[in-house]
Every structure is written in C-alpha cells, then in structure tokens.
Design goal:
Number of helices of chain A: 7
Shape of chain C: globular
Largest sheet of chain A: 5 strands, mixed
Strand order of the largest sheet of chain C: 8-7-11-9-10
Protein name (chain A): 2Fe-2S iron-sulfur cluster-binding protein
Distance between the termini of chain C: 40 Å
Strand order of the largest sheet of chain A: 2-1-5-3-4
Helix content of chain C: 40-55%
Distance between the termini of chain A: 55 Å
Structural class of chain A: alpha+beta
Chains: A alpha+beta, B alpha+beta, C alpha/beta
Strand content of chain C: 5-15%
Radius of gyration of chain A: 21 Å
Mean pLDDT of chain A: 88
CATH architecture of the largest domain in chain A: 2-Layer Sandwich
Pfam family, one (chain A): Fer4_Nqo3
Order of helices and strands of chain A: EEHEEEHHEHEEHEEEEHEH
Largest interface: B-C, 45 and 57 residues
Structural class of chain C: alpha/beta
Keywords (chain A): 4Fe-4S, Iron, Iron-sulfur, Metal-binding
Oligomer: heterotrimer
CATH topology of the largest domain in chain A: Alpha-Beta Plaits
InterPro entries (chain A): 2Fe-2S_ferredoxin-like_sf, 2Fe-2S_ferredoxin-type, NADH_UbQ_OxRdtase_ferredoxin, NADH_UbQ_OxRdtase_Gsu_4Fe4S-bd, Prok_molybdopt-oxidoreductase
Number of helices of chain C: 19
Number of domains of chain A: 3
Strand content of chain A: 15-25%
Low-confidence stretches of chain A: 300-310
Order of helices and strands of chain C: HHHHEHHEHEHEHHEEEEHEEHHHEHHHHH
Low-confidence stretches of chain C: none
Mean pLDDT of chain C: 95
Chain lengths: ~325, ~180, ~450
C-alpha cells in the first residue's frame, strides 16, 4: 500500500498505522507520540499529540477526513495522503494539545529525574508557548508510596495509560490502575500498596514523563552527566539486554534499550534493573549511540574510547577527571 | 488515591441471599463475560452496606474472578458509588442548568441550612447527608432530588416540601 | 393538533401494564414483524421511514442497521441506550415510566431485524425506579410469550435484560456505554472499529436510543412510507421534545417535526408561553451541548424565515446563527436569567463528566470552568472571552469522542451571541453579582441581511 506523508511516499503493509508509516520514512515528519507505544496492545489515541490531517482518504475514496485524526490509531489506506508538519491546522492543534498537557504539569524540571529524556519537555520546547495563559493553581495530588523501587509523582502524569497496559501485558498481575475520573484521574492503588513483581520496573521505561521514575536512581545524577553503555547478561527471566548508565565508574541506573522513539527494544526484569549494579554483573558491548542532538552527548562522551568502563583504562580515568574538574569549576 | 485509613474497613462476608442476587445478574451475560455484572453488583453491595468499602470491593473481585484494581477503577469512575460512609439518607439534588433556572440553588442552600451540614458531610445523628449531583433527567419537574438505594425521585421541590420530606424521613428512621 | 405515534395512548388506563398496553393495540408490531416480515423487510421499512436517531446525532437508523456486520457463527447484539443524561432531556425517562411496553415491543422487533438473540437496555443507574418498571414489564412480556424461546411459535428466540449504569454522562456515548456494559470504566473507545463491526464483547452491535427503538413500533404498524409522510423534508415522523426552564407547561411533548418554534413555545398545546408573564431571552433547543440562541435567532432564521422544529431548520445558518435538534432537550430562559451563570453551570457539568482519557477534554473543560467561574463571580477580565473561545476551539474536533465538542459549543455560542453580557460582567463586576443583565436587545427583530454573492 502506498501512503504519502508530507509529500513523501512510502510502501507499507496493509494494517499499518499512519504513525508507523511515518516512522518508516523517519525524520521530521514523524508525529510525536506521548501515549502510543508499539509494544503495548491497545495503547494510543489518548494524548492527541500525533493528530494529523488526512487530505485524501484513499485512491478509492479520495474524500478528506472531516476531522484531524490520531495517526497512531488510524490505519493507512492505499493512496492515502496525509499532512503533518506541512499543515498549519495540525501544527495549531498540536500546539493546543501541548498547552493542555502543560497547564497542570508542574514546572519542576530542575529537580525531575526525567529531565533530559522527557518527551513532554521536548514537545514543550518544540510546540509550547513561552508563557502560560493558565492563571489558576496547578492540580495536586496526595503523595502515595508505591514501594522502594518506583517513585510516583502523580502531578507529572499525563494519563497516557502506558503503565497500565504494561502491568496488564508484561507483568503477571496488575496492582495499580487509573482511579477516579476526568482531571482528578490518577494512577494509584486503592490502599497504599507496593507495586512490585518481576517486571514492574518496566513502567519506569514506558513513562513518557517523570511520573514514574527509578527510586534507586533518584537524585543521583542528571542524565546528561551519565555515560550510557550497552551491556548484556545471561538472565533466566528476560532478554538481559540493557543500557547501563555510569557515573564515573559506578552503574547508577539500568534501563531497557530505547530506540529513537524512546521505546524499549525489549522489556527487562526487575533483577536486571534493580539488583545488578556492578560492572562485573555484565558483559559490556560498547558505548550507546547517542544522537548529537541529545543532551546526553553534552558530556563529550564520544571521546572516551575504548570502553570507558574498564577500571584500569587510563583514558576513562582521564575523562572522568576532566569531567570532575568541569563540574567543580561550574 | 482515596484516603480510607481513617475509616473502619470491617471484613465483609456476603449473605447467601445477596450471592443469589449476584448469581442471577451474572447469568445475564455470555460465558466468560461475568465482569459485566460489576456495576449492578456494586449497586447491590451499596444498597446492603450503605457504601462500598475496600474489603467489599475485594470480595466482589473474588466473586467475579477479576483483579481488585479492576473493581477500584470502576467504582471510583462512577459517581453513584460512595467510597466512604454516608448518612442513612443521602439527598442528591440536581444542580445542573435547567433545574437552576427554576431554583435548585435555593433548594440546596435550604437543605444545607436545615440539615446543618455542608455538602458531603453527615449529620450528627447519622441520618442525613446531601450533595449536588449533575442532571438527573427530570428537567421538566425541577428542582428535583433523589434518595437511594431505591432512588425515589422528589420533584418540583419547594422549601415546604423539603421540610415535609426531612420530617418524614426522620419519622421513618425512628420507627 | 399534531399526530401522536408514541404518546397516543399515554393516558389510557393501565397503559403501563401488559393488558392495558395490549388493549390499545400493543404488540401488534411484534406479531406483524415476526409472522409476516423477514428481518430484511423490517430493516427496509425502517429505512423507508427516514427515521433518524433520536439520541442526538440524528443519523438515519435504517442505515445504521444495514451497516451491521453479519459474520457466520458470531452473535450480534442490540443495545438500547437509555443513559439519558443530556441536561434538558427527560423524554426517555418519561416514556419508560409511562409506557414501558412500547420500548420492549420496539426492542423485540429491532432485535429480530438485526438477528440478535440477546439484547440489553442500558439504563442510567439513577433511574432505578424505571429499571424496576422495565424489569416488571419484561417479566410480563415473557409470560405472555413475547420474549424467551420460540416467540409466538416463530422459532425466534430473544432474551432481554436491563443493565444499570453507575452515574456517568459519558456512558451515553455509544462506545463508552459498551465499555460500561462490559463492566469497565466508561472510557469511549477509539474508532474505528465502529460497534457495527466490533461492539459489545467484540461482536457486531447496534446501539439505539430509547425513542428510536420505540419509533420502530409505529413504523412497522403503519409502514415506513406512512411514517415518512409525517414531518418535513428529511425530518420525518414525530419527535419527543423535553421542554423545561421558564415556561408555563414544562413536560414531554410529541410533535410532528416541522412545528414552528414560536408555536411550540407559545401555544397552549405545548409550552404555553413564558412563565410569570416574563419575556423570552434565549433557548437551548436540543440539550445542553447544542449552541444557545438568543430569542430573535431561535424564532427566526437569519433570513427572517420562521424557524421550525426540524433537524434542518434548527441548524439553518450553521453555528454562526443556528443551532441543532440534538436530543430535543428544549430549555427556555426568561429575561431574568444570567447567561454567564448558565454557561458556567454547563461548563462545570462537562468538566465533571469528562472521562479524563484524552488531554484536550480532560484539561480544557476544567480550564473553561475556572475562567467562567471567575467571570460569574466578578473577577473576570476583558481578555477572558477571547481566551474561552480559543480554548473551546482547541478542544473542539480534537478529542476521542463528541464530549469535547459538546463542552466547547455551549461556551463558544454563548460568547458569540451574548458577548455584551459577558463584557458587562467584567466592566460592572460588582453590579453583576447583585442583578442580572436582563433582556437587553436579545429579542429585537433581526437586522435585514444584505444578500451577499458567494
């Protein structure tokens, strides 16, 4: 099937969504997605950031669609023509959605562990207005403790439901869910209950914002001062393929390996994520490829070759020293 | 999260009569779709206990063979289920536009004044609470209020009819 | 006096019982359909009748039925939407209370037409009395052989159940209703797939409003062609109008579509004029979500023609000068009513009822409510009106389900037509908390429009 997005035509399998067709093309024409997650069935359609304009329905029925559609949940038809960044209407609507997502989102990026890898931060930067028009108190929630592994900041949540789908589809039981309704909806367990089972840590990786973060990594370091390295181990529960995040010579965080759209390639178990924080636990594959646009590349990470994590490596020591000096100077 | 720690959460055991009613409801749906019974079953639980406690929800989950969180999600979404104890009679007054055109706001003020409690609170004798609710689909007969668990409607309310209603309910409770 | 098809026998003694209903010719449509018509014939009659969905959207019922997928070996469902929650609408409650067998008869005929063997009537939970009435009526019908196995010896089986909701306006949206019927939160589904392909339990499903189902009975009794003769243009048949607000005779009226709005408001057959000798200020013609119109625009279209109670005439002029038929919730405002306060009240309603699933509606409805609240309570700013219009635009059309539109339209239309009153709430903030703006020029004759060549 042929579909044209912002003037670029691509051939895709029947049943492909507009968003995934756009991802096959890649680049700037890919709509942003805050709630859709290709590995989670039923996800998508909720955040409305991926809205696009279908200017031609299909070869057979060329009528345009009357409203903007969620590209993540709309299947392509042969001959369909879609406008994303070439449509002012889409840009305007997306700006509106970003504004809606931000009016109640706390501006605590300086102390948020997600900062630097937060999709809402990126989206706000690209589409948000410099000033808010919202003059009321931001929504707050009572704090709830969901255990010693995962930190929940409900005020940051954008209700993408990804963590709910993850618990349903990846873990063996779901302990948390969305309670209440409307703008009072929140991720919660009815009575404070630890969300803890073999794969529960994956809710951290799927969260597009800082609502669910790794408690063991909390306030340890800004993500752009860490050094991501691909590694694996023999794990009897999961694929064992992870990204290790180093601060100096310490592994301070373990996550799944994320692709360019922020989705993990494969889900990992809690043992790999929380209990294996020594270099010796892992076989190091090499430095993680980091986009030059990412804040993570700001630490001159690519100068540290060969592998920066081998203790005796003088280059690494030198790099760490440099970094230390830079930090203390700042 | 709903704070429930300060509320007594007595263990719940459903009576055989109640279970029989549940069974009847469950039989209305195809095999394996027993979750459909959740809303009607919660209504029955509330009619029995006056509200829906966490242990009751856990029991419902067990009965329907679903996860407890699935029950919490549903019970907190719908406005009819009380997540904390209420007065014996909950006066639910419609507060939406058409009723307000014919004086619903005055009726709510009057009820607040007569009962001496704010919206959502319970009177000292445990008999009454009241709250404003959204449109009850009785706009032509407003102002209206309803009282569960039978959800009897009281239409074309006036301060006099509210007085009578409260007096009647008090008399009923004391008999 | 217009023809009555649904409420003709509403005052007959015992009409709420099976016997009383049968004495007025009840269940003739079941006999006729099951014994003399094929399911496709029934669908054809409904198509011919031109019946349009009475729940609000006005989509042709026969066409909706013909879209139902019919894969082999998969059950099909008919679900009646009795979640009547749109402010200003109370016709379904009235119908179910007074004449429950009409709905049940319609359900049997419609289920037969669609090939459904299990059907549900989803009634909003607050209507427990109506649920009890329906359950009693179903038991009566079953005893008389109109429900259950082998109905009237025709070999057709049907079980009919009543399902209560739990208190959520959003469950009137058909996919949210199906979610709720499956025992879940009332979050509307993302479409496609539409219920006709994958509805209840993933099976092909039709969801119809109470009044639409009830209308099937006279359509089968008299024939689709006869039904289509009533009404005007594409607005065929009769419609139940729920009349409320500041009128002498609030209540449910069955009208032949095409009655002039002016006649509906002022004639003794219907609303009987504005209560307490006041003057008409505004009307919300189709339930709270449709645009509000000032007195002059509800009585006359922009071309100075008499506005009629029909789908087409009520929407004449688009949203600039028209409104919608909606669910027929006709709310009348007299000169003492404050449009700002009412708009805030409606905005609060939609804020309260938003399911919270998609961001524009979840966040936008609350935002609009807060701004309107400050306007109503004397803390508004001149820029608030533009802000409200802008926020409403950012919600409208960008949400999963029509609740976003329903929340946006009343706000946008109130500012469109009553901007003076909103501005007065800013410039005369203190005064606005003690008295109302009054009628102003909202009932003045419309200026002559100059014909502009398109």
């Amino acid at each position: 099937m042929k579909v044209t997005i912002d003037g670029i035509t691509v051939d895709v399998e029947p049943g492909t969504s507009i968003l995934n067709a756009a991802r096959q093309i890649g680049g700037d024409i890919v709509p942003p997605a805050m709630c859709y997650y290709s590995k989670l069935e039923g996800s998508g359609g909720k955040c409305r950031t991926c809205l696009v304009k279908v200017s031609k329905g299909s070869e057979k029925d060329p009528r345009p669609m009357p409203k903007l559609v969620a590209s993540c949940r709309t299947t392509v038809m042969d001959g369909m023509e879609v406008q994303n960044i070439t449509s002012p209407e889409v840009i305007e609507a997306r700006k509106g959605v970003v504004e809606m997502l931000l009016i109640n989102h706390p501006l605590d990026c300086p102390v948020c562990d997600q900062a630097g890898e937060c999709h809402l931060q990126d989206l706000g930067y690209e589409h948000g207005a410099a000033k808010t028009r919202y003059e009321f108190d931001r929504r707050t929630f009572e704090k709830i403790d969901i255990g010693d592994k995962i930190q929940l900041h409900m005020t940051r949540c954008i209700l993408c439901y990804r963590c709910v789908f993850t618990a349903d589809q990846i873990t063996n039981t779901r302990l948390h869910g969305i309670l209440n309704r409307g703008d009072h909806s929140e991720i919660s367990t009815y009575i404070q209950k630890a969300v803890d089972n073999d794969f529960s840590g994956n809710v951290i990786d799927v969260c597009p914002v800082g609502a669910l973060t790794d408690k063991t990594f909390r306030f340890k370091n800004r993500v752009w001062f860490t050094k991501p390295v691909e590694a694996h181990r023999d794990c009897d529960k999961c694929c064992g393929k992870v990204t290790l995040w180093y601060k100096g010579e310490d592994v301070i965080r373990v996550t799944g390996r994320k692709d360019v759209y922020g989705e993990v390639e494969e889900f990992i178990c809690n043992t790999c994520r929380f209990d294996k924080k020594k270099t010796a636990d892992w076989t190091i594959e090499g430095p993680r490829k980091v986009s030059h646009k990412s804040v993570i590349s700001a630490n001159h990470y690519e100068t540290m070759k060969p592998l920066p994590v081998v203790k005796t490596n003088p280059l690494l020591q030198e790099a760490n020293k440099e970094q230390f000096e830079r930090e203390t100077r700042l | 999260m709903l704070r429930v720690e300060n509320t007594e959460q007595a263990p719940v055991e459903f009576s055989a009569a109640l279970i029989a009613k549940f069974d009847d409801i469950k039989s209305r749906y195809p095999e394996g779709k027993q979750k459909s019974a959740l809303l009607p079953v919660l209504h029955l639980v509330q009619a029995e206990y006056g509200w829906v406690s966490a242990p009751a929800m856990d029991k419902v989950a067990e009965y329907l063979d679903i996860l407890p969180i699935e029950v919490y999600e549903v019970a907190t979404f719908y406005t009819m289920y009380f997540m904390r104890p209420q007065g014996k009679y909950v006066l639910e007054v419609c507060r939406t536009g058409p009723c307000c055109l014919v004086g619903a706001e005055k009726i709510m003020d009057y009820i607040e004044q007569q009962l001496g409690v704010k919206e959502g609170e319970v009177t000292a004798d445990g008999l009454f609470s009241w709250r404003g609710v959204e449109c009850l689909a009785a706009c032509g007969f407003g102002p209206v209020l309803q009282i569960g668990p039978e959800y009897t409607f009281y239409e074309n309310l006036t301060t006099q009819s509210v007085d009578t209603l409260i007096a009647d309910l008090k008399a009923k409770a004391n008999n | 006096m217009g023809r009555k098809l649904l409420l003709q026998h509403i005052n007959a003694p015992g009409i709420n019982t099976l016997d009383g209903y049968r004495q007025t010719g009840g269940y003739a449509a079941v006999e006729k359909a099951l014994k003399t018509l094929s399911p496709d014939d029934v669908v054809e009659e409904v198509k011919k009748s031109g019946l349009r969905g009475r729940g609000g959207a006005g989509f042709p019922t026969g066409m909706k039925w013909s879209f139902l997928a019919k894969p082999e070996g998969v059950p099909r469902y008919l679900v009646c939407n009795a979640d009547e929650s749109e402010p200003g609408t109370f016709k379904d409650r009235y119908l179910m209370t007074k004449i429950p067998h009409l709905l049940i008869e319609g359900m049997i005929v419609a289920s037969y037409a669609l090939g459904a063997n299990t059907s549900y009537i989803y009634v909003r939970g607050e209507m427990m009395p109506q649920i009890r009435i329906l359950e009693k009526a179903i038991a009566e019908a079953k005893n008389a052989g109109f429900l259950g196995k082998n109905i009237l010896g025709t070999g057709y089986d049907l079980e009919l159940y009543v399902q209560p909701g739990g208190g959520a306006y959003i469950c009137g949206e058909e996919t949210a209703l199906l979610e709720s019927l499956e025992g879940k939160r009332g979050n509307p589904r993302i479409k496609p797939p539409f219920p006709a392909i994958a509805g209840l339990y993933g099976c092909p499903t039709v969801v119809n409003n109470v009044e639409s189902i009830a209308a099937v009975v006279p359509i089968i009794n008299e024939g689709g062609d006869e039904y289509a003769k009533i009404g005007i243009g594409r607005s065929t048949g009769t419609k139940l109008i729920s009349a409320s607000g500041n009128i002498n005779k609030p209540g449910v009226y069955e009208i032949e579509l095409g009655v002039p709005v002016e006649e509906f408001i002022y004639s003794d057959e219907y609303c009987g004029g504005i209560a307490n000798g006041k003057r008409l200020k505004a009307v919300v013609a189709g339930g709270s979500s449709v645009p509000i119109l000032p007195a002059n625009l509800i009585l006359k279209t922009i071309n100075n023609e008499s506005r009629l109670m029909s789908y087409e005439s009520l929407s004449d002029g688009g949203f600039a000068t028209g409104s919608m038929m909606g669910s027929g919730g006709f709310i009348v405002f007299d000169e003492d009513q404050c449009i700002v306060r009412n708009t805030w009240n409606f905005a609060r309603f939609y804020h309260h009822e938003s399911c919270g699933q998609c961001s524009p509606c979840r966040e936008g409805t609350g935002w609009m409510e807060k701004v309107l609240h400050r306007l109503e309570y004397g803390h508004g700013k001149m820029s608030d009106m533009d802000l409200l219009v802008d926020v409403s635009k950012k919600i409208e059309g960008n949400t999963i389900c029509p609740l976003g539109d329903a929340a946006a339209w009343p706000v946008a239309s109130a500012i469109r037509h009553f901007r003076d009153e909103f501005e007065w709430h800013v410039t005369n903030a203190a005064e606005a908390t003690t008295r109302n703006y009054g009628l102003a020029n909202y009932a003045d004759p419309l200026p002559k429009v100059e014909k502009t060549e398109a």
